[in-house]
Amino acid sequence: MKRLKMLPLMLMALCSSVAFVACSDDDDEPKPTIDPVLSAAEWVAGEYVGTTLTDLDSRGMVMRIDTTYDQPVTLGLNEQKQLVLTYHNWTDHTGMSYGDFRILPLEATATERAVVIAGECTDSLYKMGVGYPATLKVAGTIGGEPKVADLTINIDLVVSPKMTLKFTLDYEGTVE
Description:
- This protein has helices at residues 2-19, 40-44, and strands spanning 46-58, 61-77, 83-87, 101-110, 114-127, 130-143, 148-160, 163-175.
- It is mainly beta and 176 residues long.
- It has one domain: Beta Barrel (Lipocalin), CATH 2.40.128.
């Protein structure tokens, strides 16, 4: 008899516990971090300060040669509204500075959470007044809040008719 009285009580407890089960996803829709009013190039524009790790590939031997902290990189728009990357005061493995170099034009493509940038150009990098032909490439993403740049910059620097040094700069920085 006591068991029969317990049965309705257990049934009521079971029904009340089922009533409080949540649906599988109560989270709000994820909000994109890219401002929809700005173009992708305008959104990434800014001065980024971060760390550069440099690899030198000399005749097939790759060496990690440098870590540069507090390195500024600027992404901006030129007069033609092209996205331009300026890397300030790049110094090679010998400690010689080539000054600033620029890579333009860059393509900027917005995804929901980041902007992907890529570009390539040919220029001269100047060391002690002498211009050295160089091919400069950049690829990477910028996203988040605050904006974080994760870029790979490749420099093929022709130092003589028989030798081209290949540098890879891995850059990570945050917009100021």
